[in-house]
């Protein structure tokens, strides 16, 4: 058994296993949109539209929680991928 190649570099590009042994992709979302929504909500609340401002704050906080959960999930999957071993005889992952 051996450790899977990092980023699949040792496999030929036409190999059907290249995608299978590739590391999980990181989410392409950032906390920026959530932060902007919360700041816009605070500014809206101070401007007088309390209901809409609270809705923006809640939406921004919810979006931030979803991004955090997605990031944790991908980090856990990436850690699992790092610990994986590939059997060269049967191409099973252990």
Explained architecture:
- 53% of the residues lie in helices and 0% in strands.
- α1 packs antiparallel against α2.
- It has 2 helices and no strands.
- The N terminus is likely disordered.
- The protein is rod-shaped and about 70 Å long.
- With 94 residues, the protein is mainly alpha-helical.
Low-confidence stretches: 1-5
Number of helices: 2
The count of DSSP E runs of length 2 or more, i.e. the number of strands, is: 0
Strand content: under 5%
Task: Supply the key terms.
53% helix, mainly alpha, rod-shaped, 94 residues, single chain
Give the structure's gist in a few sentences.
The chain has 94 residues and is mainly alpha-helical.
Strand-helix topology:
Elements (H helix, E strand, L loop, with lengths): L31 H16 L2 H34 L11
Helix pairs in contact: 1-2
């Amino acid at each position: 058994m051996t450790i899977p190649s990092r980023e699949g570099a040792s496999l030929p590009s036409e190999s059907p296993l290249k995608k299978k042994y590739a590391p999980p992709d990181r989410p392409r979302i950032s906390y920026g949109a959530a932060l902007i929504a919360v700041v816009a909500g605070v500014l809206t609340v101070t401007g007088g539209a309390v209901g809409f401002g609270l809705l923006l704050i809640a939406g921004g906080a919810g979006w931030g929680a979803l991004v955090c959960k997605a990031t944790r999930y991908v980090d856990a999957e990436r850690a699992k991928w790092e610990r994986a071993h590939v059997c060269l005889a049967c191409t099973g992952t252990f």
